[in-house]
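Hello,

Following up on my earlier ticket. Below are the two sequence lines again, exactly as submitted.
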Amino acid sequence: MTTRAARGPSTAKLVAALRHGDKRAAAKLISLIEDDEPEARTVLRKIYRQTGRAHIVGLTGPPGTGKSTLISRLLKEFRKRGRKVGVIAVDPTSPFTGGAILGDRVRMAEASRDPDVFIRSMATRGYPGGLALATFDAVKVLEALGMDLVFVETVGAGQSEVEIAKRAHTTVVVEMPASGDVVQILKAGILEIGDVYVVNKADLEGADAMVANLHLVVPERGKGWRPPVLKTVATEVGGVKEVADRIEAHWRHLKDSGELAVRERARAETELRGALVEVALQRLAARPASERSLREAIDRVAARKTDVRTAAEGLLPATRAK
Amino acid sequence: MAKKIRVLMAKPGLDGHDRGVKVIARALRDAGIEVIYTGLRQSPEDIVAAAIEEDVDAIGLSSLSGAHMSLFPRVVKILREKKASDIIVAGGGIIPPEDVPKLKKAGLKGVFGPGTTLQEIVDFFQKNAGRSR
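Thanks for your patience. The regenerated structure is below:
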């Protein structure tokens, strides 16, 4: 079977082109990462030192609140301010067919041809939390491409899709009027993770009540940052400039307060722990005898002869020699 | 992780009829394909720029307004200019039978007129746009 990578230019060439701002190289490298090709690891090793400079901004919130439209407006605003902007927009994969309809570009059509904008749609491919497994490795590719700011749009999120807040520097939670009473807002989860809150579609009735309710419950995020609650009408650009201002203000706050270093370390820990689990599983699977012992362990667990944890511990020590 | 087929579906030009392209997007989704839908009134330049960023295997164009003879070949031409002609192009819509050979000659891999079944279109993309070509 010929893989996509084998047909195209070599990984080394793609990485070199990426550093010169070649969009097609960036796109191909993101595909390698998404498809979890073996070359993806080489790519990430090669570009890792060029990453870590961009401001990563997550946008999350329920479906239909206007996240994509707001991003398209913010894109324009940050382009005016001279920033190169990347977008990774995540939409859900069907749990039944594995297919997906990725429709976030519909709202961002105007930006497509700007050479200093890069937009990529991404399906979750079964990953939980409103993101895809490849999302933040793709962000690294966009950083190496030279983007100053990268937006990550989650799938329309419910109440507990909070991983974005651990991975982005600034999290923007987008709500709209009349999307629930104050008890919904009091619940834990997504309404605790914002650094900036936006009530979009603020021309609809109930916008001020939504803002008031949010003010009631929004907690302080880190030392000395009280998350603002802003109103926007993204289809008419209303309020967008202020959202951009507060996103920039939060970035400055993170740097000045030392919070950035704390968050970067937390991010490194999350990524390293995730990678450890992955490597452990791969090493387990790579052992010739392990498929059989895994099956036997499953049988023992299913027959209630061993509990899950004991079976897992029995499988792993044997890999230590590797 | 399995290699997913990625297809960009677009409406070039000023044609505002998008029910058909949405039905096809849905059929491709149900066949396990990742469909990037870009919406109405796209220029051939917009479509190619998006296809490159999305690193799709194929572009599906829909036109019901009669402008297919100028817009469809233009997408193929710009792909060539951008050295991205490994992305295949198919088109469908109200396309008279006599235009089909002309469009194929212009570089379209598939042309689908009225009466085409969804299964034919799904089969076309699965056969021609697979990542393990």
